[in-house]
């Protein structure tokens, strides 16, 4: 397990990439001269990294209601990382993964998978500017088979050769885009904390972290699998997931997070390649994480979020109806 706090940057920082183009400068960094890079294509260029020990997420649990009831949750620590050269060019960003337990359908994994990135880091003044594209992905943990409904549907899908979201390769995917710009899939990671909503003290780490950045993304529609039966099932899973997670990935909701970094370290490129896969297998195996759990979702005053029992029963009835409609009553 990594040390809880690292506030001393590793030696070897050179810098200068930020200053290579005047368009990169704050207050409005423009990174369009850089190509959007695939996240795993340039690991051999990475010299340095900043690990996110505190990925603090926030979203509105009732986005269409007058009382939107904003929720706060820290995802599991240390999966997220920012990787860059000693000059400061960003080449890879690892984003968070979290386990969520649904009373209706059991254990699910959610990962904000990075599909493209570009940007720069300046260690001298602890600033950052990066653009990203992501796809949230959701799939069932093996332990979800303990749930009667999931086990039956899982087996029925296997017998019909339909894809079941039992691993990341067959996961449900959602479109995302820059908040308020559905035609723009690129959103920004910038320095400092989010300013568009109040942040409770339990979601802040100024005395422990080396620096902090923030980003936000609007959740779009589920991406079709090409199979209408699978799409219908995935829609039910998304409803159950959002019930358990307080509408975190509800279409039209804006998911925000503050990423609290520890101090820069030297990258072990082999370890970087294996890092996300190690996490994925760990969470898949036991619904846990190598460096400790995140937190449960809660409101600004610390009150835990809790899904309605009546809604849980309604969601369960939908899954049973799905089984009957598509696979007959002999379940």
Radius of gyration: 20 Å
Q: Report the sheet-strand fraction.
A: 25-35%
Number of self-contained structural domains = 1
Instruction: Give the beta-strand count.
Output: 13
Structural class: alpha+beta
User: What fraction, in percent, of the residue positions are helical?
Assistant: 10-25%
Taken from the alpha-carbon principal axes, the silhouette is globular
**Total helical elements:** 4
Mean of all residue-level pLDDT scores? 87
Outline the low-pLDDT stretches.
Answer: none
The topology string of helices and strands comes to: EEEEEEEHEEEHEEHEH
Largest sheet: 13 strands, antiparallel
Give the termini distance in whole angstroms. Answer: 44 Å
How is this structure best described in words?
The chain has helices at residues 148-160, 228-245, 269-286, 309-327, and strands at 48-60, 70-74, 80-84, 90-94, 97-102, 106-122, 127-140, 172-177, 187-191, 211-222, 254-261, 265-266, 298-299. With 331 residues, it is an alpha+beta fold. It has one domain (18-327). Strands 1, 2, 3, 4, 5, 6, 7, 8, 9, 10, 11, 12 and 13 form a 13-stranded antiparallel beta sheet that branches. The longest helix is centred in the last third of the chain and has 19 residues, at 309-327.
